[in-house]
Specification:
- The chain has about 290 residues and is mostly helical.
- It has eleven helices and no strands.
- Helix 1 crosses helix 6 and helix 5 crosses helix 6.
- The longest helix is centred in the first third of the chain and has 52 residues.
- The protein is extended and about 100 Å long.
- The mean pLDDT is about 80.
Length: about 290
């Protein structure tokens, strides 16, 4: 076999290989779309099974909601994925998928003002194993896909969507009087184990969903937020976080980050207890006091 013939065979083999790869490449996009559609379909199907098993008792067979138990999910204000009127009304900064996934994963220990007059008696439980529930993360993802598959929704808003009006801002406590406002004794070493234990109970019920069970700002509700929740174990940052600012954040919330206002939901004593617990990892209970 001559050298020229071998070269010719090599060239023809190379050309054939290029042609085969080109044909495969042209079909790859279509193949991937088909694969993704099949995968999404299987996830939605699995989510439907989980929804029937765990969710219809409160949210109805088609997500229409059940009076006195749970709100509708298959509704236009929640599943308008482009305009997200419900998410804007509650000042959520992430996507609809993030919100639904986080709600399923971490639950909702108490209702937002959006539902305060709707008469629901059941609170959303925690479902993800990441937060002590029974479902694996992939099962939570499948439930999320199932709910999102209802977009754009069949039902109208549960309540009228209105632009929220800011409530009255509490009169700031003068820095010189700030420590006197704490309703229990606090020294530089803290308020004592009993207060911290009670603060932990308030925290676990109301704050851990976003700030994490270990106070590190890594709870399930942290996903999708514009700015991660504060990490109370970051002592470098906590040394720059004044007590007076900490109190204001808990009482009045932070609209720009989705942090709710707790001033009308928790008692003054519970607010101070949870603040002391949040400051306990770094031990800066009363310092710095002012910005």
């Amino acid at each position: 076999m001559s050298v020229q013939f071998k070269i010719l065979v090599g060239i023809l083999f190379t050309i054939a290989t290029i042609v085969v790869l080109a044909i495969y490449g042209f079909a790859e996009d279509s193949r991937m779309r088909t694969y993704q559609a099949n995968f999404a379909g299987r996830s939605i199907q699995a989510g439907g099974d989980y929804f029937e098993r765990y969710c219809i008792a409160c949210h109805g067979e088609r997500g229409e909601g059940i009076v006195g138990k749970g709100p509708p999910l298959n509704r236009t204000d929640l599943l308008d994925l482009k305009n997200t009127p419900y998410l804007k009304a509650i000042a959520w900064n992430g996507t609809t998928a993030d919100f639904i996934k986080n709600t399923i994963a971490a639950g909702r220990p108490q209702y937002s003002k959006y539902y305060e007059n709707e008469g629901y008696t059941q609170h959303m439980p925690t479902w993800s194993q990441d937060y002590g529930g029974p479902l694996r993360p992939d099962q939570v993802d499948a439930l999320t896909d199932y709910v999102l598959n209802w977009a754009p929704g069949e039902y109208g808003p549960i309540v009228a969507i209105v632009t929220p009006t800011p409530g009255p801002t509490a009169t700031p406590i003068p820095p010189g009087e700030f420590l006197k406002a704490i309703p229990f004794p606090v020294t530089e070493t803290g308020p004592g184990d009993a207060i911290l234990s009670e603060g932990k109970a308030v925290y676990d019920k109301n704050c851990a969903a976003c700030h994490g069970t270990g106070l590190a700002g890594d709870g399930p509700g942290a996903q999708g937020t514009a700015k991660p929740p504060r990490n109370f174990t970051d002592c470098t940052a906590m040394r720059q976080f004044p007590l007076i600012t900490h109190h204001d954040a808990v009482v009045n919330g932070r609209v720009q980050t989705g942090m709710p206002a707790w001033g009308k939901r928790l008692s003054n004593e519970d607010i101070w207890k949870v603040i002391m617990y949040e400051r306990s990892p770094c031990g800066n209970f009363i310092e710095p006091i002012s910005p």
